[in-house]
Every structure is written in C-alpha cells, then in structure tokens.
Amino acid sequence: MGPHGRVQVEFTPPSTYRVIMRGEFDDEEAETLRQTLCRLVEAADRTVEVDMADVAFIGSGGAAAVLAAFDLAVWSGSTLHVSAASPFAQRLLHVVGLDQVLGPDAGGV
C-alpha cells in the first residue's frame, strides 16, 4: 500500500464544508473518515462536498464511512455530495451504488 489517507477540511461561509481526501483509505482510516464526515453533517442546513479526486484507493470500510455520513446528512437536513472522484473512487462508488445518490461527479463509469 502507498500513503495513508489524509483528510483536509475547508470551510466556506455561510455553511459549506469541503472535505478533501488524498491517498489510500483502507479499513484503518475508515473510522477516522466516518467520524470527520459525520461530525460535519450533524448540524442541519450544512453542505458537505467530498472531493475524492486524489484518492488512490478506497476500501469497503471507506465506502461505508461515506454512506454513514450520507445517511446522517439526510436525517439531519444537511447535504452531502461528491464534487470530484478519481477513477478508482468512481468505480467503487458505482459498484456499491453510491454514485446514484452522491452526485454526478461520483460516478461516470
């Protein structure tokens, strides 16, 4: 495996958070990713954009983390969508069916 996954969060007022994922997200990084995403969508009326353009690998645990955050966003009244995805991330999101719910840039395969 290559570099471990890193997550950077940027805020654009009044209520948009951009989560930039870089590297490889295996099960070891999945819990941290889930906690970060869920913490951001907990408050109502927030938009969370997930940028996966620089994701070299994401395993099932990482996909489950994104799905958990999406479910929480729906429940809390926030919005979570993928604004960009690497070819690897696109394939995984397509295989698990998340490309249909996370936005037009999540799929495309």
Walk me through the structure.
This protein is of the alpha/beta class and 109 residues long. The chain has one domain: STAS domain (Transcription Regulator spoIIAA, 2-Layer Sandwich). The chain contains three helices and four strands, in the order ββαβαβα. The protein has helices spanning 27-41, 60-76, 87-95; strands at residues 6-12, 16-25, 47-58, 79-85. A four-stranded mixed beta sheet has the order 1-2-3-4, covered by helices on one side. β3, α2 and β4 form a beta-alpha-beta unit. The mean pLDDT is 88.
Q: Please give the CATH class.
A: Alpha Beta
How many E strands? 4
Summed up, the helix count is: 3
Termini separation comes to: 24 Å
Beta-strand portion reads: 25-35%
Q: What is the third-level CATH name, the topology?
A: Transcription Regulator spoIIAA
What is the assembly state of the chains in this entry? single chain
* Overall structural domain count: 1
Name the strands of the widest sheet in spatial order: 1-2-3-4
Mean pLDDT: 88
State Rg: 12 Å
CATH 4th-level superfamily? STAS domain
Please summarize the sheet with the most strands.
Answer: 4 strands, mixed
Net shape = globular
Judged by helices, strands and strand pairing, the structural class is alpha/beta
User: Judging by the overall fold, what is the CATH architecture?
Assistant: 2-Layer Sandwich
- How would you spell out the order of helices and strands? EEHEHEH
Give start-end ranges of low-pLDDT stretches: none
Helix content: 25-40%
